Amino acid sequence: MQGLIMNVPLTITAIMRHAEINHPATEIVSVTLDNPRHRYTYADAFRRTRQLANALSGYGINIGDRVATLAWNDYRHFELYYGISGIGAIIHTINPRLFSEQISYIINHAEDRLLFVDPLIVPVIEAFKDELKTVESCIVMTDEAHMPQTSLPNVQCYESFIAKASDNFSWPDLDENTASGLCYTSGTTGHPKGALYSHRGVILHAYASISPDVFNFSIGEVAMPVVPMFHVNAWGVPYAAPMVGAKLVLPGPKMGDGATLQALIEEERVSFSAGVPTVWLALLQYLSESGKSIESLNRVLIGGSACPESVMREFMDKHGVYVNHAWGMTETGPLGTVNTLKAGMEKLPDEQLYKIKMKQGRTLFGIEMKIVDDDNRELPRDGLASGLLKVRGPWVCADYFKMEGQSDVHDEQGWFATGDVATIDTEGYMQITDRAKDVIKSGGEWISSIDLENTAVGHPQVAEAAVIGIPHPKWAERPLLIVVKKEEQEVGKEEILAWLKDRVANWWVPDDVVFVDEIPHTATGKILKLALRKQFENYQFPNI
Ligand code: AMP
Fold first, then answer.
1. How far is the CA of 361 from the centre of ligand 1 (A)?
2. C-alpha–C-alpha distance, residues 180 and 176, integer Å
């Protein structure tokens, strides 16, 4: 027997309708190139979103079409989040910091038809515009007055694109499993892979995220996501905020600027923020240099890389800002775990308290998590056994876009292998202890150790090369290159670094090179990264 409950689909459109009726006057404040403080309300935002929807439909964008954005956090990007998904099309958010080959690969792979681009990012696209096979038109996210000179094809500005469109639009009734967004991750080996989100997944994630032990959002909240809107939907904040009527503060291209962040926090009374560890260093440094305060800021969610204890302590002890450590992935929408303390833990001695707070935390309701050994056998939750972390849940990707059935990270029981190695303790707190995937996360961006190794081995005097990530106070991790020279050959560190500088992006170049006689291997001849990481666990970069 079925329950007699209305089967109302969980769609992003519902957030729009809800916020427009219940929170029309709540503000969205943005920093853009054309306006250092753009200010309007949810009513304004969703009226313009209907104009955008008319313009997109009028252009011929259909259900399932992909529309790309290369943009910072601002109100036009917010309108695109809702306008594109609302008509049943898919918003494909792209990280402009990727290499041009990666960006053109993912645009072509996604078959994006339109490209919405921030004026500051226009030159990035111009460099490889001829490689783009499916893009019909580029829309620069500004007005006529601020339109840059550009060689992009079929280009116009955002304001002109929506100007003539009516703000009367009847949103289609979508099935809740309709795809809503697409985000590629380069945190895997090989080409970037597309995580294809659904309306239902986004809504369930947003419900989970506003709860007390996660964002703890309420109507009085002022939320400033410092995590980019191109990185897993800015961790869902642009959906969660209008759900509760929280004011949104979007720092645009100024996310790495401590002075702007401090000014936004104080002037707009920001109470909640979220971002990867590296972005907070600029703010904390600015605060210590200027002596200015961030009194309104109540709490910060830090994830994407392990949060250094020093960052957590500076926020908590010096500025009275509570820090919650969180873990997630592009494939997990992203929230998987958040570290909140159980009753009584606050009173633990300082050292014990921070030992717990440094862990990545417990799962949100909806996410299941386990650790397994090499034979996929579940390991005990005793805080000691460490194994491959697997998760599953209603906002976790079941497959990758256009790779259906080919995934080697999903098993028959529906578990997704994260590539992270972790322990889970008796209280349910997960802690990342290592990484099984061969990538390094530097300042929130991925570096492929395999690509670096292959490039290094191309050097005529190098016999074998391995790259591992070493903890770094600013970038979370930086690559260290370990080299075995060819027999009776001489080559120096500078020569190898110069070789790499000519062949990889600047920020991929390892911070140091060390020479060894031998690199450890598995029985099948693969480099034993685990053993190497152990061997170099006390290594420190010379430039720190
Ligand atoms: P991405 O898909 O780019 O968001 O990266 C996800 C990966 O970032 C995870 O699989 C982890 O390797 C890493 N990561 C995310 N959050 C944390 C955290 N709190 N501590 C350590 N690593 C993290």
1. 13
2. 9
441 is catalytic: yes
Q: Is 74 left (phi over 0), alpha (psi -120 to 50) or beta?
A: beta
> Closest ligand 1 atom, CA of 232?
4
Low-confidence ranges of the chain (pLDDT < 70): none
Encoded tokens for 78: 């917010």
Residue 325 sits at φ, ψ, to 5 deg, of -85, 140
Sign for the pseudo-dihedral over CA of 154, 159, 164, 166: positive
pTM: 0.95
Q: What is the DSSP letter of 237?
A: H
- Tell me how far apart the alpha carbons of residues 153 and 138 are, in angstroms, rounded to a whole number: 7
Q: What is the pLDDT of residue 185?
A: 95
Q: How far apart are CA 207 and CA 468, in angstroms?
A: 38
3-state secondary structure of 527: strand
The answer to whether 292 is a known catalytic residue is: no
- Determine whether 331 is an active site residue: yes
1.10.3430.10, 3.40.50.1820, 3.30.300.30, 3.40.50.300: CATH of 439-535: 3.30.300.30
Instruction: Reply yes or no: is the peptide bond before residue 460 cis, omega within 30 of 0.
Output: no
**Residue 523: its pLDDT value, please?**
80
In terms of DSSP bridges, do strands 90-93 and 179-185 run parallel, antiparallel, or are they unpaired?
parallel
Query: Sheet containing 512-515: which strands, arranged edge to edge?
Result: 462-472, 476-485, 512-515
- The residue whose CA has the least distance to atom 20 of ligand 1 is 306
Q: Is 446 a catalytic residue?
A: yes
Residue-level length of the chain: 544
On the 0-12 / 13-18 / 19+ scale of CB atoms within 10 A, 503 is: middle
Helix, strand, coil percent values for the chain (each to nearest 5): 30, 25, 40
Which residue has a Cα nearest atom 23 of ligand 1?
A: 305
Please tell me if the CB atom of residue 277 comes closer than 6 angstroms to any atom of ligand 1: no
Distance 174 CA to ligand 1 centre (A): 32
CA of 318 to the centre of ligand 1 (A): 26
Q: Is-contact 336 366, C-beta < 8 A? A: no
| CA distance from start to end of the chain | 66
pLDDT tens per residue, range 275-312: 999 999 999 999 999 999 999 999 999 999 999 999 99
Give burial (CB, 10 Å; 0-12/13-18/19+) of 57. Answer: middle
Decide if 225 contacts 275 (C-beta within 8 A): yes
